Amino acid sequence: MCMKEFELINRYFKGRGITRRDVNLGIGDDCALVTVPQNCQLAITTDTLVAGVHFFDDIEPRALGHRALAVNLSDLAAMGAEPTWVSIALTLPSIDQQWIEELTDGMHEIAEYFNVQIIGGDTTQGPLSITICAKGTVPEGTALCRNGAKVGDWIFVTGPLGDAGLAIESRKQGLTIEPEHLKHIKKRLNFPTPRVAAGQVLRGLASSAIDISDGLLADLGHILNMSQVSATVNIESIPTSDAMKASLDFEQQLPFILNYGDDYELLYTVPDSNKSMLDVKLRQYGVEAICIGQIKSGEGQIDLLHKGEKFTFKHQGFEHFSKDLS
């Protein structure tokens, strides 16, 4: 018997996952009702993942469920927000009950880990896509934004870059990668870890922040443009994984660590006065404070250095509608 929309919602979403005390009315009505804590601001982000654009058509459904929520929670992390609630709009070509079960298992696993409740959404028939609207709270006046970087601030990242891009291109181009390294980069692509705890630690320490979704240089450019400053980045200071080092030489690594996105590490700037406190605070959550450069005066320029010398690299991060897909 063919399952229909409300049967799908009742079986795979309603009554599953955690129940937060601040949710007054969840799935089942025209709107959800929630209570926002006093003296907090509501942080809201929305991302759409489309088959063939943001993920391969044959991705494991559990990985897709995890990834769909993770990329939104990463946006909240970049603002220093505590994730609280998500709404999900799911478009499916047809209902495959085993596939849906695995997809929602992936969603509920990461939602429960971060104490997030799924409070509503929509289901419809059409080409496969998932749209998530994630909400979080942040103490009033403490949110991390892109426009706070100042001359002299240091530039940091929370972890290695380029693995997700390497996983994508290893499939597209048939790159030869050792099995253990291939397993690592595929996990980094399909099961990214949003740096939620790190983002909250950075409140009051960082002057600006963004998550690396479109590539290091592109996302750093967003901070520089909003803050009306420039930057110097030391290429050799950018962290990379053992898988990256073992698979590619230095020149081959550059497009992945500088251009590719989908790593969902945090990129942030810190005044010199707060630099010494970073490592102690972040290490409590298993995150290293990795300094890769410094903010300087200017209008959005990024100077790359390699072993102290200026390094030229043509860069362009991902941007929708920048290429003709026809």
UniProtKB/TrEMBL annotation:
ATP binds at residues 121-122, 146, 213. Residues 28-137 form the PurM-like N-terminal domain. Keywords: ATP-binding, Kinase, Magnesium, Metal-binding, Nucleotide-binding, Thiamine biosynthesis, Transferase. Substrate binds at residues 54, 262, 318. Catalyzes the ATP-dependent phosphorylation of thiamine-monophosphate (TMP) to form thiamine-pyrophosphate (TPP), the active form of vitamin B1. It comes from the Bacteria. Mg(2+) 3 binds at residues 30, 75, 211. Mg(2+) 5 binds at residue 214. It comes from Pseudoalteromonas translucida (strain TAC 125). NCBIfam families: thiL (TIGR01379). Reaction mechanism of ThiL seems to utilize a direct, inline transfer of the gamma-phosphate of ATP to TMP rather than a phosphorylated enzyme intermediate. It is an enzyme of class 2 (transferase). Signal peptide: none annotated. Mg(2+) 2 binds at residues 47, 75. The lineage of its organism: Bacteria, Pseudomonadati, Pseudomonadota, Gammaproteobacteria, Alteromonadales. HAMAP family: TMP_kinase. This is Thiamine-monophosphate kinase. Residues 150-299 form the PurM-like C-terminal domain.
